[in-house]
Amino acid sequence: MTYTQIAGILPAVVFPAATLVQLVRMVRAHSAAGVCVATWLLFGFANLAIYIYAERYTEWQAIVGMLFTALLDFLIVGLALLRYPRSQRVAAA
User: Fold this and answer.
1) Model pLDDT, residue 92
2) Among candidate residues 76, 54, 75, the one with its CA nearest the CA of residue 66
3) What is the phi-psi region of residue 89: left when phi exceeds 0, alpha when psi lies from -120 to 50, beta otherwise?
4) Is the pLDDT confidence value at 18 over 70?
5) Which positions ≥6 away from 76 have C-beta within 8 Å?
6) Using only C-alpha atoms, what is the Rg of the chain?
7) Angle 69-78/3-29 helices, nearest 10 degrees?
8) In the chain, what's the furthest Cα-to-Cα distance?
9) Of 54, 77, 82, nearest to 67 (Cα)?
10) Cα distance between residue 84 and residue 69, in whole Å
11) More reliable by pLDDT, 30 or 91
12) Is 55 left (phi over 0), alpha (psi -120 to 50) or beta?
């Protein structure tokens, strides 16, 4: 395995794991307190854009690291907007 392959695996593991931490915290707490919707929305769009830019459409690292993470980002946004009251969220700066 080359260094570039290892470099591709690292974000494919870290990005979705970090996003899942936020999602699990929200679900367990039944609250979107401390969640900035604008930030997670921007992360989602950025992940979609970098997937297109990288042109690695069939590689599992790109699918998991970028597309799956974008899906989780948008899930956080959806939960924050639709499931939990506005008073529990942090207003965008």
Assistant:
1) 52
2) 54
3) beta
4) yes
5) 19, 22, 23, 26, 35, 40
6) 15
7) 20
8) 49
9) 54
10) 21
11) 30
12) left
- Residue 2 DSSP code: -
Report d(CA 19, CA 65) in Å as an integer.
Answer: 11
Cβ proximity of 17 and 71 under 8 Å: no
pLDDT-derived band at 85 (thresholds 50, 70, 90) equals low
Q: Which amino acid is residue 29, in one-letter code?
A: A
Cβ neighbours for 13, distance < 8 A, ≥ 6 positions apart? 64, 65
Q: CA-CA distance, 82 to 17, in Å (whole number)?
A: 23
Which own/partner contact pairs does 45-50 have at CB distance under 8 Å and 24+ positions apart? 45/70, 47/15, 47/73
C-beta of residue 4 within 8 angstroms of C-beta of residue 52: no
Contact 80, 37 (CB under 8 A): yes
Write down the mean pLDDT value for the chain: 89
